């Protein structure tokens, strides 16, 4: 019996052991329900390999050179993806995903076999290890699901320019070692961040590619309603989110308010009988109506939806100096989405935007007010947004606008100070979870932040290091660890929020 067959049989048996009926599953205690999830994931990984290998075979037997004698064409399908959709009942996206991954696994195995047999070139072309071999190997050993493998491959991209196949292979190995247990969407974001941090020159090209992929379509449906479909590039999405989020954020986990007028506004939104989606649509229509009669040539400068972009001060100085012979350095980050943008895009935004300087050190502690005030003020919140980049809870993706400032040494219990080093951003859900379920936060001497779970979650109470969601902050923290970098706490160039 093959290793794959043993894996499939073992994982299937492990899942079936939990029961077959609703009554069986209702009888499971909570810890067994969690164990069932782990068993299902293991079986999905094993079966995903079978699906990818099957898709690759369908694609190979349907190659264009076979014409109408290929497997897909003989069965009446224009492509192997169309055949897979019909036979295995997967979506078009999943069919393409399976074909691409299956082919990658086959190519990686073929290259490795040739190299192991001493074959270093064929027809004058060198045989090289595939850049995504670590990803393919993780799939074949059952350590990675098809969805996560696809997320890693898409996030890292392909070798190009200064990013060699060897460097991508190293990044893939590092991501698998450090973040291989993450779900696919979080893994994609990690992979894309690593690509951006290692390929600053390619950010502009990737940004332009995303821009061209964006679009919006309105269409009539059979029931008399109109549907809409499309996707937005990160810049466009930031504008839309900045305009529409305030309409519904109290319903969707937005921060709690302290001023009476803000509390009243939030309550009105929560109590509104319309659905959240209806409120959003009404708001969008109102914005279009309001802008529909305006002449774009007469719109006052600065009357735009607020979108914050964080860029190193060096980029601003470059823009103001207008030194065209100098190549742009670094990158910017859209605060609301955490997405990187090219320096050129940030410079263009500075031409028609207000901006402010925030000088930070590597730990991000520019403004301290001790115990003179309980709440963090606006400028401190701006500084925390730059340092933390959103909710600092592991893998939470809420942006700074959906967070609250938490005292690590709590104001009442610990007599904590309202200083930047004692503050951290948490979304409302995780802020309440921390207080109600007795999680603990602390800051070490190196300026790193750690989250310790309660004994009910982890009997050993192993602390987890928290990482900023802001790529600029992460890049600075990395540079601090290199030889010749400034010591912890040394001043760094300003960050500009526009």
TrEMBL record:
SMART domains: HNHc (SM00507). GO terms for molecular function: endonuclease activity; nucleic acid binding; zinc ion binding. Residues 474-498 are annotated as: Disordered. Keywords: Endonuclease, Hydrolase, Nuclease. Residues 379-432 form the HNH nuclease domain. InterPro entries: DUF222, HNH, HNH_nuc. Belongs to the Rv1128c/1148c/1588c/1702c/1945/3466 family. This is HNH endonuclease. It comes from Terrimesophilobacter mesophilus.
């Amino acid at each position: 019996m093959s290793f794959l067959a043993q894996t499939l049989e073992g994982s299937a048996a492990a899942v079936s052991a939990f029961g077959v009926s609703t009554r069986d599953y209702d009888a499971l205690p909570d810890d067994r329900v969690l164990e069932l999830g782990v068993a299902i994931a293991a079986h999905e990984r094993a079966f995903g390999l079978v699906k990818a290998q099957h898709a690759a075979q369908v694609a190979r037997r349907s190659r264009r050179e076979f014409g109408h004698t290929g497997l897909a064409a003989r069965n009446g399908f224009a492509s192997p993806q169309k055949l897979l959709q019909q036979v295995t009942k997967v979506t078009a996206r999943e069919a393409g995903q399976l074909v691409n991954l299956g082919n990658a696994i086959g190519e990686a195995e073929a290259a490795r076999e040739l190299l192991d047999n001493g074959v270093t070139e064929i027809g004058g072309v060198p045989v090289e290890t595939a850049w995504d071999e670590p990803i393919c190997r993780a799939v074949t050993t059952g350590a990675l699901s098809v969805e996560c493998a696809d997320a890693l491959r898409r996030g890292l991209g392909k070798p190009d320019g200064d990013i060699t196949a060897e460097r991508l292979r190293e990044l893939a190995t590092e991501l698998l070692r450090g973040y291989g247990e993450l779900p696919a969407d979080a893994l994609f974001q990690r992979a894309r961040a690593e690509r951006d941090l290692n390929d600053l020159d390619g950010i502009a090209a990737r940004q332009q590619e995303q821009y061209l992929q964006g679009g919006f379509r309105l269409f009539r449906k059979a029931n008399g309603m109109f549907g809409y479909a499309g996707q937005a590039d990160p810049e466009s999405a930031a504008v839309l989110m900045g305009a529409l989020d305030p309409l519904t954020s109290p319903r969707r986990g937005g921060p709690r308010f302290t001023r009476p007028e803000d509390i009243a506004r939030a309550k009105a939104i929560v109590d509104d009988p319309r659905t959240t989606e209806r409120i959003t649509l009404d708001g969008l229509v109102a914005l279009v109506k309001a802008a529909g009669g305006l002449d774009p040539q007469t719109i006052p400068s600065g009357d735009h939806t607020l979108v914050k972009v964080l860029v190193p001060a060096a980029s601003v100085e470059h823009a103001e100096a207008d030194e065209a012979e100098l190549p742009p350095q670094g990158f910017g980050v859209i605060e609301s989405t955490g997405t990187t943008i090219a320096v050129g895009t940030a410079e263009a935004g500075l031409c028609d935007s207000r901006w402010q300087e925030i000088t930070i050190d590597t730990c991000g502690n520019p403004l301290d007010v001790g115990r003179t005030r309980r709440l963090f003020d606006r400028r401190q919140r701006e500084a925390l947004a730059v340092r933390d980049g959103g909710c600092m809870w592991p893998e939470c993706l809420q942006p700074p606008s959906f967070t609250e400032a938490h005292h690590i040494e709590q104001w009442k219990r610990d007599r904590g100070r309202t200083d930047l080093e004692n503050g951290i951003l948490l979304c409302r859900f995780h802020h309440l979870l921390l207080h109600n379920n007795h999680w603990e936060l602390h800051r070490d001497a190196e300026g790193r932040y750690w989250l310790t779970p309660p004994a009910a979650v982890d009997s050993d109470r192993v602390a987890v290091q928290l990482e900023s969601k802001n790529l600029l902050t992460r890049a600075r923290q990395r540079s601090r660890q290199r030889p010749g970098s400034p010591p912890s706490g040394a001043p760094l160039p300003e960050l500009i929020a526009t």
